[in-house]
């Protein structure tokens, strides 16, 4: 059984109605750049300053430090207003799944491409707190590089006292989530609660593609050895069967 489950926030555990996509697009277009949906999706899940820095030149605008800072301020303003109007919520079954994993002795951490300020606001809105509902939360403010680097996952391991990467599962709704999981040496799980289709998400390195985080407690790797034996009830059926042999490395 794993010791740590690491979950992305927006699009994976948190339902924000796709606000992050619209906020990032708005931030870049406010500088006069165009945004190709494919480029936008490529940079979703990464640190947002990094995403803006990449998207501006892709849209025909030079990414100066001052312009990137201005776009990031626009991003945060858009996000703040949207979250005030329609506060983010947990996806159905996610709170129960987290509680179930923790009841089995599995630590649960969240990682996110948001900075600490935005992250704390989301957690407050949802009503989750470290020590009460979660064991750790890692933001891009806490590491030198965000996804697809493995550092947020590894920092979550540090915070929770988990030593072996083989006892870690990491789940997310974007390709960079899957890349970060694979780079960290963790079990990589894609979930279909974000913007990507099963076919698109399956292009990333993965061990499972599931409908959502709510299914994760039923995976064999998340159940005690006796419960995971052949005689026990079967695990939840993933949208795509375990794909270690076909995953993109």
Descriptive keywords:
249 residues; alpha/beta; six-stranded parallel beta sheet; 9 helices; 8 strands
Q: How would you describe this structure to a colleague?
A:
With 249 residues, the chain is of the alpha/beta class. Helices cover 38% and strands 13% of the residues. It contains nine helices and eight strands. It has helices at 19-29, 37-43, 48-58, 65-85, 94-103, 116-126, 151-160, 175-184, 198-201, and strands at 4-8, 14-15, 89-90, 107-112, 136-139, 168-172, 187-191, 208-210. A six-stranded parallel beta sheet has the order 5-4-1-6-7-8. The chain has a two-stranded antiparallel ribbon with strand order 2-3. α1 (19-29) runs antiparallel to α4 (65-85) and α3 packs across α4. It is globular, with a radius of gyration of 18 Å. Residues 231-237 and 244-249 have low confidence and may be disordered.
């Amino acid at each position: 059984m794993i010791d740590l489950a690491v979950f992305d926030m927006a699009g994976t555990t948190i339902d924000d109605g796709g606000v992050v996509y619209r906020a990032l697009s708005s931030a870049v277009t406010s500088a006069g750049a165009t945004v190709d949906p494919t480029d936008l999706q490529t940079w979703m899940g990464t640190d947002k300053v990094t995403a803006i820095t990449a998207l501006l030149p892709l849209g025909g605008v030079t990414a100066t430090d001052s312009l990137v800072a201005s776009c990031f301020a626009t991003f945060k303003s858009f996000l703040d207003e949207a979250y005030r109007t329609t506060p983010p919520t947990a996806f159905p079954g996610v709170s129960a799944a987290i509680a179930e994993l923790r009841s089995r002795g599995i630590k649960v951490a969240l990682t996110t491409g948001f900075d600490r300020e935005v992250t704390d606001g989301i957690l407050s809105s949802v009503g989750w707190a470290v020590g009460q509902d979660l064991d750790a939360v890692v933001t891009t403010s806490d590491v030198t590089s965000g996804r697809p680097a493995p550092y947020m996952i590894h920092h979550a391991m540090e915070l929770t006292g988990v030593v072996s990467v083989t006892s870690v599962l990491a789940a997310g709704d974007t390709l960079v989530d899957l890349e970060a999981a694979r780079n960290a040496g963790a079990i990589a799980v894609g979930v279909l609660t974000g913007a990507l289709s099963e076919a698109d998400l399956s292009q990333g390195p993965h061990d499972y593609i599931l409908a959502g985080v709510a299914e994760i407690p039923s995976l064999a790797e998340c159940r005690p050895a006796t419960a995971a034996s052949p005689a026990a009830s079967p695990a939840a059926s993933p949208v795509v069967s375990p794909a270690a042999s076909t995953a993109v490395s």
